[in-house]
Structure formats: structure tokens, C-alpha cells
Specification:
Layout lengths: L2 H23 L3 H15 L21 E7 L5 E14 L9 E7 L2 E8 L5 E9 L4 E4 L4 E18 L8 E4 L4 E4 L6 E3 L6
Helix pairs in contact: 1-2
């Protein structure tokens, strides 16, 4: 079996296990921890997932990160992406409107966690660095922001594909207001059937 076939086999096995965890246990903090552990097992296969395989945008590009679609069911559920970044990148505080798990393969990604305030804003309540073997998990309404300074490669797994998430909210601190995230762009196809 060549390396690409092995990669796709490992992805399929991981997603099958994650589907079974959600089917058996539903979407809870505990089940998301199990999904995170299963995704960390896949991330340990650094021989199959490198920045050479999933390169970030070239220096000088308008974007500093991009997503590679590794798996997505026909009904758009259980979407797995590799997120590659090549420099400074950040997001505002936002939710996902579906469950989400991020696990590191290479590099460091700081995640900050927030609660909504009674004044309509956000208050930071903690943070965690996603790196090789470590990750974070979110219920649909949980809030976080991402902060990257350097090259990274991470898995991002969602209960529903990003293009289907039309009501994701993000916080605009200057206006003390919430807005809807625009549709995600620059998702590159990397599924076996599309290779």
C-alpha cells in the first residue's frame, strides 16, 4: 500500500470511529473528549500528514492559512479538514453552531475560550495551546478564538461541513456587536475520491 492509500485508509477508519462515538453517546463534553482522543491518534501519524503534503499559502499570498477537505459524508456531516498556516493568523471570538474538535499535528495554535457577558460582549475564561497530540473540543454554542504565529498543521473536525454553517457568529469588539461569519473560502479538495 502506498503512502496516499494508507493516509486515506487511516482517515476513513478515524471518521468511522468518530461517527460511532457520536451515534452511541450523542454530543456531550464527554463524547467530544473521546472524539478528540481518536483524532489525536490520527495526528500521531506525522508520517502521513506533513506541511509538504498540505502546504499553507505561499508567502506574500492574501491568505496565511487554508483548509484541505480530508473527509465529508454525503449529507455534509463529519467533515474533517487539515488546516495549514504559514505565519501570523487569528480569528475573532466565534461559535461554530455544530460540535468541533481541533487537534495539533505540527506547530502551536493558541485557543482562547470565552463566555458572553450581560453587556453583549465576551469575557476570556481560559486558553489552551493546540499542538502535536493536544487539542480542544467545542459544543455548538461554545466560543473561542484562534491565534497562530508560525507554521502549523492541525486537524479541524466538525459535525457539519463549514459551507453548511450559515449562522456562525463572531464578536466585533470595536462595535461591541455580533455578526455572521461569511462563507469560508479557500477549502482545497483532498479526499481520496477527488484526488
Amino acid at each position: 500500500m502506498d503512502r496516499m492509500q494508507e493516509r486515506h485508509r487511516e482517515i476513513e477508519a478515524t471518521v468511522a470511529d468518530i461517527r460511532e462515538i457520536e451515534k452511541r453517546e450523542g454530543v456531550t463534553r464527554e463524547s467530544l473528549e473521546k472524539i478528540k482522543a481518536r483524532l489525536a491518534k490520527l495526528a500521531a501519524r506525522k508520517d502521513l500528514f506533513t506541511l509538504e503534503d498540505f502546504p499553507p499559502p505561499q508567502p506574500g499570498s492574501a491568505r496565511t492559512s487554508c483548509l484541505y477537505r480530508l473527509s465529508e459524508d454525503a449529507d455534509h456531516r463529519f467533515a474533517l479538514y487539515a488546516n495549514a498556516a504559514n505565519g501570523t493568523y487569528g480569528t475573532p471570538a466565534h461559535n461554530h453552531t455544530t460540535w468541533a474538535v481541533i487537534v495539533g499535528i505540527e506547530g502551536d495554535e493558541l485557543n482562547r475560550f470565552y463566555d458572553r457577558t450581560t453587556e453583549g460582549g465576551v469575557r476570556e475564561k481560559g486558553q489552551h495551546v493546540v499542538r502535536q497530540g493536544a487539542g480542544v473540543a467545542f459544543l455548538p454554542d461554545d466560543l473561542h478564538s484562534i491565534h497562530i504565529d508560525g507554521k502549523t498543521l492541525n486537524f479541524h473536525m466538525y459535525g457539519l461541513a463549514l459551507e453548511q454553517l450559515h449562522r456562525r457568529e463572531y464578536y466585533k469588539p470595536k462595535e461591541n456587536a455580533w455578526a455572521v461569519f461569511p462563507a469560508h473560502s479557500d477549502i482545497r479538495e483532498a479526499r481520496a475520491a477527488h484526488a
